[in-house]
Amino acid sequence: HFKHTYTVRVKYCLERIYICAARVMTGQEYDVLFQNRYASLLNATFLRSLPDCLEDSLGREYLFRFLVQSFSGDLISFYERFKDFRGAVTESERKQIGSRLVMEFLTPDAKRELMISQDIKNKIMIKWKKIENKAKEIPADIFDPLYEWMITTIQDNSWLLFKSTLENLHISV
Amino acid sequence: MGGCMSDSQDTTDRNVEREIEKDKKQDTRAHKLLLLGAGGSGKSTFFKQLKAIHGEGHNDREKEGFKRQIHGQVVESIQLLIRQCKTVTKDPLPGIKDEDDEPFGNDDLDDARLSNSLKVEMTETEIAQFKIAKEFDQSCQYLLEIHGSRSALTEQLVTHVKSLWNECPAIQAMFEHRNKIGIPDSSAFFFNDIERIGRSDYTPDHKDIVLARYRTTGMTEKEFHIKDAVFKVLDVGGQRNERKKWIHFFDGVTAVLFVVSLTCYDEVPFEDVTDLAADVTLMNSMLESIKVFEDTLDFECFQKTGFILFFNKADLMQEKIKRVPITNAFPNYKGPQEFKPSVDYISKYFLSLNRVPEREMLLRFFFEYVLFVNYW
């Protein structure tokens, strides 16, 4: 249960406690043990922009925790599936992941159907059907409009709040 | 030394416990108000208003965020207007040679929702009014090539938007059908003021912030202290897929603030927007609001919870009622096509949906984002 409900604040505080404990127990500085993570956490350079945050593994961790906390976890599920699709090497792999993506996020009334305009949805669905029917090569950028929509949605709804939350935690700790 | 440390430890522990107790008390004292309503009803606008009036207002960073949203709304709206004009007139999109954008043959499409987006039943004369003249090709191409709608408004972008909005009759004609294609009313305000909002030193004022439209996802929570009372207000997304999340917020609710847009009786819900062929009498956001309201009233946990029904956009309704009767959503309405009797009918209709007489139901109305107990 805890795994699904803890907040960004709890995550941040536990991480800081862990840093202190690791220092006491090992006699070494935490930055020696986990250099990149430590630097990233203290400098929070990933807060510069949303794309920076998504590129940074620690930034992603914290942002995803925040999105779960604010009931926008569906965006993370989409992002992970999208990254899988973009990283697919073979055509069959791309087709398999693409089909799942369409089924999970674009099919009407699907549990995780994205709140995207019919305009964009139809355009992608038509392209996808064409690919399936005519066995055409799958363009790697076919789902990019969904990614752009995801970025806009996070920007509009969560980014500033997330940034303020982390900055406030930095100040208060 | 040990004793000293233990004493200081005890003091710290006691302080922490005191803090936790204080937080707990505050939490139980807070009235949890849940903002509900269908998509586009104005829940987040109400939330923004609360923040401006009873909260700490909007700081510079938030204003920067609103600026991005406003710029995004302008780009998104103008792109949608161009695309819809091109769809209706079956004109190719300028500069776009992608074969995948070509329409399908009937044999390729078995999904009615998809095929619906490609057909518009209109006379030749009706279609002609949406034909964008050749002289605007460059503007259309420039605007359609913008990817990611949250681009800053450059000088060039402002010029193209201004030219299409002010000089292209097809765009104006399409905007008249904004209720069917999901373009917010407030986009006209931003189009008209494009030079001001496109300036590099532009900072959104209160009106701009209230008029900025974006779709809420997830949940945002904020505490407001009004006189001696503490209110915890929860704002949630209203679109269909967002409503699946509502159940998570129902615990310990003091009152539900249910927001209804008075102008949505001829507007196609966001999820059903396709093109001008949409029949607003079959599905419109008012019918959706009624359905959502009924479903919300039926929840077991809300049987004893007070409801405040907020009828929003009353000022816009005063204008709309002159052109569009409410019979789109209320076919049994036989009264005059006037503001007061129409609003009376709508509010009574909503109140009649409450089947628990002891449940408290209050009505409130918004005029130009100002709250009124009555609308006369």
From TrEMBL, chain A:
Cited InterPro entries: RGS (IPR016137), RGS_sf (IPR036305), RGS_subdomain_2 (IPR044926)
UniProt xrefs under PROSITE patterns: RGS (PS50132)
SMART domains xref list: RGS
Domain RGS: residue ranges: 49-162
Domain of life (superkingdom): Eukaryota
Gene3D superfamilies (alphabetical): Regulator of G-protein Signalling 4, domain 2 (1.10.167.10)
Name of the protein in its database record: RGS domain-containing protein
Organism of this sequence: Reticulomyxa filosa
TrEMBL record, chain B:
Organism lineage string: Eukaryota, Sar, Rhizaria, Retaria, Foraminifera
PROSITE patterns: G_ALPHA
Biased composition (Basic and acidic residues): 11-27
PANTHER family with a match to the protein in the record: GTP-BINDING PROTEIN ALPHA SUBUNIT, GUANINE NUCLEOTIDE-BINDING PROTEIN ALPHA-5 SUBUNIT
Keywords: GTP-binding, Lipoprotein, Magnesium, Metal-binding, Myristate, Nucleotide-binding, Palmitate, Transducer
Location of region: Disordered: 1-27
Species of origin: Reticulomyxa filosa
Binding site for Mg(2+): S44, T216
Matching CDD domains: G-alpha
Protein name according to UniProt: Guanine nucleotide-binding protein alpha-3 subunit
GO biological process terms held by the UniProt record: adenylate cyclase-modulating G protein-coupled receptor signaling pathway
GO CC term (a single one): heterotrimeric G-protein complex
